[in-house]
Amino acid sequence: MSLKAKDIAKILDISPSTVSMVLNNKPGISDNRRQQIIKKINELGCGHLLKKIGTASGKNIGFVVYKTIGVIIDESPFFSLIIEGVNVQARKYGYNLMMIHIDRNMLVDECVKQVRDCHCDGLIIFGVEMFSADVALFRNIGLPFVIVDNYFVDEDVDTVSINNKQGVRKSVKHLTELGHRKIGYIKSNEIINSFSERYETYLGILRELGLEFDERYVFPLQYSENGSYLDMKRFLDEGRKLPSALVADNDLLAFSAMKAIQESGYRIPDDVSVIGFDDRPICLLSDPQMTTVLVPKDSFGPASVDLLVSRFENPQKNCFRIEIGVELIQRGSVSEWKDTLWK
Fold first, then answer.
1. Euclidean distance between CA atoms 249 and 199, whole angstroms
2. Domain 11-43+55-162+299-324's class?
3. What are 84-116's pLDDT values in tens digits?
4. Whole-model pTM?
5. How much of the chain is in helix, strand and coil states, percent to nearest 5?
6. Is 223 helix (H, G, I), strand (E, B) or coil?
7. Looking at residues 200-217, what average pLDDT do you find?
8. Please, which residues have CB within 8 angstroms of residue 10's CB and are 6 or more apart in sequence?
9. What is the CA radius of gyration of the chain?
10. What is the location of CATH 3.40.50.2300 in the chain?
C-alpha cells in the first residue's frame, strides 16, 4: 500500500507540516534540512509524491531569497509579507512559483544548480541584502530576473524598490511642521542599500531645510530587538543627550529605542517624538503606538511579476526601476515640539 504524507511523517519522526512543506516545495525550512528529507522520501520509494518541479513548457518563476549578512532577512523577513502577491500574480500569467534559497557563502556551482533544477523561465530575487557585486551571479545564470526591495545605480537591471527618499522626506518635513528643529537619527549598524539611502536622505533634507546636523543625535544600534535596546540604553546611561525628535532606519530599531528611552525617564512624545519606517505590526504594540512610514507590501508582488513577464516578451528593452510610493501613518509617538528638554 502506498504511503501517505502522515505515514512519512511518522516514519521520519517529523511533523506532518514539515513533510507537507517538502512535498509541495513550500518555504519554511532550511535548504539542508529539505534535501535531507527529500533523500529519505526517495529512499522510502515515495518520490512520486514530491511536487514536480518544471514542466515541458517551462511555466515556472523562481522566487529567490538571497542572503548575505542574514540578520535583515532573519529578523521579521519582509519577503514573507509579499510572497502571496507574487504567487497570485504569477498564476494569473499561468506560472507556478518555485522557492529558491541562496546564501552568498554557497559555492557558485551549487547556486546555479539550485536555480536550474527548478527549470524556471525567470527569477524574482528578494535582494534586500544584495550589493552590486552580487548581481554578477544572476547575470551568469542567464535567466531574466527582477530584483525586489533593492536597486543599484551602477547596474542595468530591472528592480522594484521602496521610495526610501519619499519616506524620510515626509517624516522630517512632518516633524518640522510640528516645530521640531533638533531631529536625530536611529541608525542600523548593519549596512544595506535601503538604510544607506534613508540616512543620506535624512542628511540631505536637513541641509535643504536649513537645520543643523549634530552627530551626537545619531544613534548607531545593533540590528536585533535586544541588541538595539541595549545599545540605546547604554548611550543614555552614558549621558548622551536626546534631540526633540528621532527618525529611524526602520520600525524594529525605533521600537527598541523607544523602550530604552522610556526606561531612562523620558516621555514619548512629550519629551521626544519618534518615527519608524515600514509599518510592521510591532508599531501597534508600542505605547504610544508608533508613527511610521507605510510601505504598501501588496504592491510589490504584482509589480515584480508584471515587470518580469514584460521582460520575457521584450528581452531587448531598457531596464526599469519601479519605485513603490509610501505614506506617513500618524499615531501617538509624535507631537508638537514643546521645548521640554531645553527649559
1. 7
2. alpha beta
3. 899 999 999 999 999 999 999 999 999 988 898
4. 0.80
5. 45, 15, 40
6. coil
7. 97
8. none
9. 23
10. 11-43+55-162+299-324, 164-295
